[in-house]
Design goal:
The complex is a heterodimer of chains A (about 450) and B (about 220). Chain A is built from 10 helices and 5 strands; from the N terminus they run ααααααααβαββαββ. By secondary structure, chain A is of the alpha+beta class. Chain A has 2 domains: about 220 residues, no CATH class; about 130 residues, 2-Layer Sandwich (Heat Shock Protein 90), CATH 3.30.565.10. Chain A has a 5-stranded mixed beta sheet, with helices on one face. In chain A, α2 runs antiparallel to α3, α5 runs antiparallel to α6 and α9 runs antiparallel to α10. Chain A is rod-shaped. The two termini of chain A are about 65 Å apart. Chain B is globular, with a radius of gyration of 18 Å. By secondary structure, chain B is α/β, with parallel strands linked by helices. Helices cover about 55% and strands about 15% of the residues of chain B. The chains are: A alpha+beta (about 450), B alpha/beta (about 220). Chains A and B meet through α5, α6, α7 and α8 of A and α1, α4, α5 and α6 of B.
Chain lengths: ~450, ~220
């Protein structure tokens, strides 16, 4: 839980938000998937329904049409029978007719239960027509050809032709009914399609709405994160500048403390020790020569006092070299160089060009400390034999470089506290700082300070 | 009649902001019958004023004084009162200070550590126009010089000087004027000047203070 608490504090998405996002997007995708699958399924259903309806339609209307046309054929045959001279020769025998009537009867029997009254009425009328025709035809078979010839015209006029007309009428009614049925079927298909479409549309509308809501929510969250990020960045920038200011003030405090300690050491302790030496010197001078033991003690006091004076002096100079204030930057650097040369194997050379003796104190102390640090590093870590310090002053800047011929180091990776401190101090005065060093090829520390106004 | 043998009293001004040290030096000077302390100063400005008003023979000055440091005070004094010889007191045996002091016109440079034992000698030397350096100072300068020669492998340019030039060098370092050198060596002033120029060139020296420093390093003068 502490992890999510941390994340919330940092403004990062916590587990809860992550899960919500995951489920929302997942759900949306699932929704769209379901909608797609459902559409496919419904299309299939529709197709099946359509097929079903069509089959039912066909099953209903086709037989009727076939029936009516068969009855028409029967009627036509009857007419032909009546009119022909030799029906036998034309194949219009009783057998043929009974075959036809057999077909018609079986078809009639095959009819599915008529559900609609209209359908029933049509079937009944067809049946009636057929029965009438049969009734007309049956007696005709027993007639002689002369009888048939005599009766033909009359029958045709009174019975057969009207019958034919009635058959046609019925056929037309069937056709009409067929068209109605087709229209009904179409309507049904259309209705089912409409409902499917409605369902589909609603599902898509839902997905769209969900998608829109999700993207809106995401956009808001994103904006929120961005704002958070901005805020954090501002905070960071402010902290950094506060830190820089703090470090600058620390450096100032440190330098002024060093200065005051150095002065105290020089004025208070140094003076007392100096006076001590003076008195010891006088004591030594006024000693009676016949007392070697006393002289021994006095000499010892003298030695100790001298050592103490040296020590205090060295500490004071390390803290703040009086040369900086008395003789200026270059003289102080030259002294530094000589000190380093005296106490180590490193020989230091100082070169200067046009450097004012009265630079502002903060520049002097910064450059001095920079050179001090660079030379210390060269002395301690690089086994260098020679070092060169160059300080150059132009119209608008001061350039400082310290180079040695020592071991070098990987300046990209190793940045000690001393180096960081140098860099910080230089940057605070608006200067640039760079270290060139590669293992095996010496080190050069460079700094450049812009001078805003020069005191000549 | 046995006349009173009056020794010329050497009038000395002592300037040091460290009162205890100054008191000690005063005592040392006062012990000498021919030396007289005519004034004590706390800082450089006061020292200059006192030289103006008291016109002492010797002014002993500490380098590190407030208001006006010893070197700048020495500069002013030697320019306005060339007859007052300046003895510099310092805590540092370093050629930077020594050179600066010499450039400012001081003729003696003493370390405070050994001031009590060196002071009287220094005062007497500068009164006679000679220079004087605390032995420790000479030692440090010499050591620095030798070390540098050794490390940089440079030749000791002293070997380039002819015997005559070396004589001239010593006398000039001791503070003698061209005329005095000419007299002592039986040469014309012109010759002396030529030698001087040659010496400066061979030893790569920029001026008399550097020459004196060189001489101290080499132990030609002390």
């Amino acid at each position: 839980m502490s992890d999510s608490h941390l994340k919330r504090e940092e403004g990062l998405p916590s587990t809860k938000v992550r899960l919500t996002l995951l489920f929302s997007f997942g759900g949306l995708l699932a929704l769209m998937l379901v909608a797609g699958l459902q559409a496919l399924d419904l299309a299939r259903q529709l197709h099946a329904q359509e097929e079903q309806l069509r089959q039912a339609f066909l099953a209903r209307t086709q037989p009727l049409l076939v029936l009516s046309s068969t009855i028409c054929v029967y009627n036509d045959r009857m007419q032909e029978f009546l009119l022909s001279q030799d029906p036998q020769a034309e194949g219009l025998t009783g057998q043929v007719f009974s075959q036809l009537s057999g077909e018609i009867n079986s078809t009639l029997k095959m009819f599915p239960q008529a559900r609609q009254p209209e359908e029933r009425a049509l079937i009944e009328s067809l049946q009636r027509l057929f029965t009438e025709q049969q009734g007309m035809l049956d007696p005709m078979f027993s007639w002689s050809p002369a009888e048939r010839h005599r009766q033909a015209r009359r029958l045709l006029q009174e019975k057969v032709v009207p019958e034919q007309a009635r058959i046609h009428e019925t056929s037309e009614r069937i056709a009409l009914w067929d068209a109605e049925q087709r229209g009904e079927t179409d309507r049904q298909i259309f209705a089912s399609f409409s409902s499917l479409q409605a369902r589909q549309s609603s599902l898509f509308a839902l997905s769209l709405a969900a998608g829109f809501a999700l993207s809106l929510a995401s956009a808001f969250y994103l904006l929120h994160l961005e704002r958070e990020g901005q805020r954090r960045y501002k905070e960071l920038a402010r902290s950094r500048s506060q830190l820089e200011e703090l470090s600058a003030r620390l450096v100032d405090a440190q330098e002024s403390e060093r200065r005051s300690i150095s002065r105290e050491l020089h004025d208070e302790v140094g003076q007392s020790l100096g006076a001590l030496l003076v008195e010891v010197g006088r004591l030594s001078a006024t000693l009676p020569p016949a007392e070697p033991q006393i002289k021994e003690h006095v000499d010892k006091i003298k030695t100790v006092a001298e050592t103490a004076v040296q020590t205090v002096r060295n500490i004071a100079l390390l803290l703040r070299p009086s040369m900086l204030d008395d003789l200026g930057l270059i003289a102080a650097l030259e002294w530094q160089g000589r000190e380093v040369s005296r106490r180590s194997d490193l020989e230091v050379e100082i070169q200067s060009s046009q450097v004012s003796e009265k630079l502002p104190d903060e520049y002097q102390i910064c450059i001095y400390r920079l050179v001090q640090e660079a030379l210390n590093n060269a002395e301690r870590h690089s086994s260098a034999k020679n070092a060169k310090v160059v300080v150059e002053q132009t119209a608008d800047q001061i350039l400082v470089s310290v180079s040695d011929d020592g071991r070098g180091f990987d300046s990209q990776r190793i940045r000690g506290l001393g180096i960081l401190g140098m860099e910080e101090r230089v940057r605070r005065l608006g200067g640039t700082f760079a270290i060139d060093s590669k293992p095996g090829s010496g080190t050069t520390v460079r700094a450049a300070f812009p001078l805003l106004k020069l005191t000549p | 009649m046995r006349g009173m043998f009056t020794m010329k009293t050497i009038r000395v001004l002592l300037a040091d902001d460290h009162k205890l040290i100054r008191a000690g030096l005063v005592l040392v000077v006062q012990q000498q019958p021919d030396l007289q302390v005519v004034g004590e100063a706390d800082d450089g400005r006061q020292a200059v004023e006192m030289v103006n008003s008291l016109k002492p023979d010797v002014a002993v000055m500490d380098i590190g004084m407030p208001n006006l440091n010893g070197i700048e005070a020495a500069q002013q004094i030697t320019q306005s009162h060339p007859q007052t010889a300046v003895v510099m007191l310092s805590m540092h045996a370093d050629e930077g200070y020594v050179l600066r002091a010499l450039k400012a016109g001081a003729r003696a440079y003493l370390l405070k550590d050994s001031a009590t034992s060196d002071l009287v000698q220094a005062i007497r030397a500068v009164v006679e126009g000679k220079s004087f350096f605390s032995p420790a100072v000479s030692k440090v300068l010499l050591q620095d010089y030798l070390r540098k020669m050794r490390r940089t492998g440079a030749e000791d340019s002293y070997d380039l000087l002819s015997p005559r030039e070396r004589e001239v060098l010593q006398l000039v370092a001791e503070g003698k004027s061209n005329k005095e050198v000419a007299n002592l060596l039986n040469l014309s002033v012109y010759t002396v000047e030529t030698h001087r120029a040659k010496i400066m060139q061979k030893l790569n020296l920029k001026g008399v203070p550097e020459l004196i420093l060189y001489a101290v390093r080499k132990g030609i003068i002390s």
